[in-house]
Amino acid sequence: MCSKLGFVAVIICALATINCFQQQYFRVLPKSLRVQEGSEAVLECAVANLAGQVQWAKDGFALGFSSVIPGYPRFTMIGDRRHGVYNLRIVNVTLEDDAEYQCQVGPAQMHKVIRANASLTVISPPNAVEIVNHPHNSKLEVKEGEDVVLECQVKNAKPAAKIVWYRGNQEIKGEKVSSEEIKEVEGPTGIPKSTRYTTISRVHFKAAADDDYADFTCEARHEALQRDMPMRSTVQLSVLYPPGAPYIEGYAEGETVRRGQSLELVCRSRGGNPPAQLIWYKNGEQIRMAYRTSGRMSENVLSFKADASDNKARYSCEAKNIMISNTLKAEIDLTVLFAPSHVTISGPSEARVGDPVPLSCSTAPSNPAADIKWLVLGKHHREASNRTVISPEGGWITTSNITVVVEPNRRSIVVVCHGINGQLTENVVATHTINVLYPPSAPMITGYIPGTTLSAGTVQKLSCISSGGNPLATLTWFKNDKKIHSTTKTTDKSVSAEISILTNVTDNQAQYRCEATNSATEIPLFETVTLNVHFAPEAVKVRAEPQELKPGIVATLYCDAASSNPPATLSWWRDGIPVQGLPMQLKKGLHGGTVSTIELKLNITKDLNSAVYTCQAMNEALQRSVHDALTLKVLYAPIFDETTPYTTVGVENEPLVIMLRADGNPSSIAYTWTKDGLPITPSSYSTSNDRIISEGSMLNMTRLTRHDAGIYTCEAVNSQGAATVNITVNVHFPAEIKSVSQNALSNPNENAVLACTAAGNPLTSDHIKWQRKGYDIPPRSVTFEPRNQTSYLTIEGATREDVGNFQCIVNNGIGGDTTQDVMLVVKFKPEMDASPNLAKSASNTGHVGRLTCKCKAAPAPNFTWSKNGAKLPVNTSTKYFAEFHKTDPITYTSVLLINDIGSSDYGSYECGARNDLGFSTTSVKLDITSAPDPIISIMVTNVTHNSVTLSWIPGFDGGLFSWYRIRYRKINEDTYRYEDVTPRNSTVYTVHGLERHTDYVFSAMALNKLGQSKYRPDDTKVTTLTSSEVSELNVVSTEFVETADASKLVIVFVSIVVIAILIFGNATFVACFILKRRSRRLKEQAGQSSKSATIEMYAPSSYNDTMTGETLSSVSEKSETYSQDGDDRPPPPIPEVPSMPSRHMLNQTDAYLMGEQSLVIPPPLDYPPPNYAVYEGDHARTLPHPHRHKDISGHSTLGRSAGKQNYVPAPSPMPPLDGSYYNMASDRYLSYPPLIGEYLQQQAGRTPTPPQQYSSGIPKPHLINGVPTSPPHMASPPLNMGLDDGYTPGLDRQSAGGTLRRQRFDKMAVPPPDVTVLHQGNCTQHLPMNQTPSVKQPQSILKDPSRHKYGNQYGSPISSSTPQNSNSSQILTVQNLTSDVPQYGTIKKDNKKQNVTIDESYNKRNETHVV
């Protein structure tokens, strides 16, 4: 029952729901829109009872339900879903957006799909409007009546725009405007919706004058354009048309203008484009063309003052422009009234009494014509004839004529003429005077009495007077009919004229005339006077005939004097001395004077060249004279000076200048130099390579050679001839030896002749000498042959003792001596050279051995080689070869080459030499390569105030390349200085930097790659000079030289005592240590052979790059021995370590020597840089001797293994010379430890570098034969000192510098020190973790220029700390040793057995060197 009721209830509710349901519908329907391109459009759509999803569609394409529409970034669906608002917003609308849009609502449950459409129309305004080919506001120029077509285009509008035309503000309609034409413009995308439209419209019309200045405008009309902002394009027309006719203002036809009145005539023309050009003309001539325009009107204003020329003048104005071919014209004719400007009276101004005088009066132009009236002597004269003519200038000219008769008793008649213009009432007047003429009286001359004589140069005044006459007379002076100037004075009744004459030659017999004239005289009245004047000749002229003077001819000199009154007296002069000439001749001259002439005959010679002859002309009356001189120019060929040197001597390689002088006329002389017919280059054509050049008369030889000797010819040429001179040049040059020889090989007791041929200039027998040291050469044994310039030396009965070099010396005073040796050879049996260098030879197995045998013999010997009595198959087998060399005429060398040397090839070889006079032999020993032998002797070759030059004879070089080292010291000091010889193979060296006047001792040693020799004893003493002047050598050669004076010994002794007290606490311990080791060595030495080699040790000295110390043993007596199997061996080799780029750094341990008792010696700071030998390949290890032994461990020993462990106590060791130490148990050398930390602490308070910089923590102890060694951070050593093999009580350590100094026990000479070797220890504790050590070499520490960086000389940072185990052996370390260092092996020393062996495993580990 209940279930049925529930079902009914559900049905009832469903029906109620259906009755209440309402469908979704558009509350706001979309509306169609028209929007402008680029704006925003919103299509509204609102749905009520929204149930489905809403989207928009464009032209049927659904845009989707999202508010952000993919692919349409400008489309957005905006609104509110709660209210059903779904508006479509489009921003920046484009033409592509023009479409039909639909708002769609999808179905939902019982809701149906609903749709609503709306269109979006996009309009676009035009982007441009233009009149084709005419920019906006431009001007268009056309002619009147011309057809005009204007085309307007409105571009890119949608929809198409409309076009409206305007003329001014009036719209143009009708037929003038054509129908519009529309063109489609496709968009860039090609979509039809993006199409735009261009509208085209044209206007047609004929241009008229009223279109000028008219604006034609094209306006675009479009719904997208605002009305108040139209789009327009305007063109202004400029219509060309003719101007209007011109007209004249400012004067009316027939108007009267007075002369001088101002007029302004204005010509105007209206209209015309362009405006008319206006030009004024007067009587057809252009007078003004400047005009102005205003708009379309032109104006030309002519302003002027009227004058007579303007009367009846025609003024015209012409107008024209480009539109007319004929000019437009306006004209006027002027009428101007004017009175005459003047009147002119013409006629005679002088007349005699009773003469009729015609007169005429004319007026200037006048309008109207003027009247003329006369006044004569103040009365009207009416008897006149008048006439009027037209003036060409305008107006009329009036002329009137009258005649006046001269009445007596009048001096003048005044006539007046009046010109009157009746209309203008103006009057002009002219006056004319007629003078009545009377003749004057005759003139009279005063101032000179005829017959009086005047002297030329004086002033004479003459005066002329004339009285009466009308007008007064005019006086004129004449000289010989030539008018002259005069000064005139006038009174009422008379006139006078005066002249002033400065008399000269022309005034003699001159006639002066005075004339008086006036208008009444037809013939002048005159008076004359004649002057008499004395004058000297004005000039005298000297000339020669003929004009060209040459020696040998007779020339005549002529002297002509000018006219003179009275006649002049002539005379000849030369150098102030009168010369007698021929008698004087006279003839009539000018101006009434006399001309004088005199001659002089001369015999011409060259000595008369430049002679001056003077002629004097004297006027006795006036005591005045004139002179003329003539310098004779005698032409002659050049003549050389008598002082010319005909022989000149020069010196070779020096300049020589020859100067000549030639005299001739003309003086322009050309010089030509020749030698042997060949010209010498003039300086103007010379080059830098020409040694001999000529410069005129000078011959310049810049650098003479002997080939320049000879005869040089100089030719001097001028226009008159030539002259030559020969100059002999003799060139002196140094004498030199051309050749030396011996005539033949001499038999004993026969005469031998030596020849010496020389060349030189000069060269005589006195210039060639023979000499031989210690040999007496008698003068009679020397002869000289000048023909071949050879000197001969004859040795009578020559023997073997005479064999040797004779010296030929040539010196002729130019340059120095020239010497050459010539060997005198006398036959003798071979003499073998047994020098140490030849007695030994050394080569290693597998190499080629060279044995040298040298001898002297004459004639040449034959060599033979044998061994053990058996002759060797030389040059007949592949084993032995021999080389033969001739060193000089008596010295011969045989070199035996032994291929592939084996052990059996070592030993003694016998060399034999045989010639006709006998046989000799010598022995040569072949051994393995070794250190060099000591130097044989030292010599001093030069001494200065600060240097000494040494030379030496080396010993056997050990079969290897050797070099040398010099040591020296002051004689009163213990410290040595050392210098390596450069170049390395030189046997001569100069030591510089010495003190002046100081005694030094020198010694030297030899080195090669296997070792070094001992130093020579200090047996060479030298005293330097007191100044830089050269002096004789001051050399003392002695076996031993004292090293200190008494005062020095006292100081040393006191120092030793003090030091002994300081080390006394350790003395007992050190003594026990030494005794124990000595006893051990004596036991071990018992089985050794007797042959020995000296081993010496050195200790470092004070901080001055020097060393001091005594050897452990002397050269011969004190040395210990060790087994060498029959030969003395030099010290072991010194390996040369390759250079390292960075420094060594020591561990914290500051010591470098440590024995079994923990005796520590600090390294010196003053040791000189080492010099290391170069090891190559197998040379890193000494070649084993055939009889060497093996040690206990089976490792091969280096050098002499058995005997090296036994040493006698010796003085403190001295440092080695090259920075290495000789190890007591090995032949090897290791680098000298170069640094000490204690010294760094003493330098200016510097703090040592912390050890953490060089190690990572404390390394494990190193083991020596199983015993722990001293830790690497050992502190500075205590005061007691230990060596590897012994201790010397005299050894102390200075507290200041950490250096070693030896105590002297007796006053003995310093023997040559030797070398001690110390091996380095482990170096790995210095490297940071995981750091690869860089290459570092010992010598770089000592030689690095930056070593002062840390306060000591070597610059490596060192630090120290508290010692922990002073009883263990020291491990000396050198940082950065890599595989580049020669592999020597690890040296181990057993503290108990004292056995020193070589651990070859070092070559594999490459890590540590342990002592």
End-to-end distance: 124 Å
Give the count of helical stretches.
7
Structural class: mainly beta
**Gyration radius, in Å:** 73 Å
Can you tell me about this structure?
By secondary structure, the chain is mostly beta strands. Helix content is about 5%, strand content about 40%. It is built from seven helices and 104 strands. The strands form 30 sheets. Strands 58, 61, 62, 65, 66, 67, 69 and 70 form an eight-stranded mixed beta sheet that branches. Strands 84, 85, 87, 88, 89 and 90 form a six-stranded antiparallel beta sheet that branches. Strand 97 (about 1220) and strand 98 form a beta hairpin. The longest helix is centred in the C-terminal third of the chain and has 22 residues, at about 1065-1085. The two termini are about 125 Å apart. Mean pLDDT is about 75; it is low at about 1030-1050 and about 1085-1410.
Highlighted features:
41% strand, 1411 residues, flat, disordered C terminus, 104 strands, mainly beta
What's a quick, concise take on this entry?
This protein has 1411 residues and is mostly beta strands.
Fold blueprint:
Blueprint: H1 2-20, E1 25-28, E2 33-36, E3 41-43, E4 46-48, E5 54-58, E6 61-62, E7 75-80, E8 85-90, E9 99-105, E10 114-123, E11 128-131, E12 138-143, E13 147-157, E14 162-167, E15 170-171, E16 181-185, E17 196-206, E18 215-221, E19 231-240, E20 247-249, E21 256-258, E22 262-270, E23 277-282, E24 285-288, E25 292-294, E26 297-305, E27 314-320, E28 328-333, E29 335-337, E30 343-346, E31 350-351, E32 356-363, E33 371-376, E34 379-381, E35 385-390, E36 396-405, E37 412-421, E38 426-436, E39 444-446, E40 453-455, E41 459-467, E42 474-479, E43 482-484, E44 487-490, E45 494-502, E46 511-517, E47 525-530, E48 532-534, E49 540-545, E50 554-561, E51 569-574, E52 577-579, E53 585-588, E54 594-603, E55 612-619, E56 624-631, E57 636-640, E58 647-651, E59 656-659, E60 662-665, E61 670-675, E62 678-679, E63 692-695, E64 698-701, E65 710-718, E66 721-742, E67 750-761, E68 768-771, E69 782-785, E70 790-798, E71 804-810, E72 818-824, E73 828-832, H2 836-839, E74 840-842, E75 849-858, E76 862-867, E77 870-871, E78 880-888, ...
Parallel strand pairs: 2-10, 12-19, 21-29, 31-38, 40-48, 58-66, 74-81, 93-96
Antiparallel strand pairs: 1-4, 3-8, 5-6, 5-9, 7-8, 9-10, 11-13, 13-17, 14-15, 14-18, 16-17, 18-19, 20-22, 22-26, 23-24, 23-27, 25-26, 27-28, 30-32, 32-36, 33-34, 33-37, 35-36, 37-38, 39-41, 41-45, 42-43, 42-46, 44-45, 46-47, 49-50, 50-54, 51-52, 51-55, 53-54, 55-56, 57-60, 59-64, 61-62, 61-65, ...
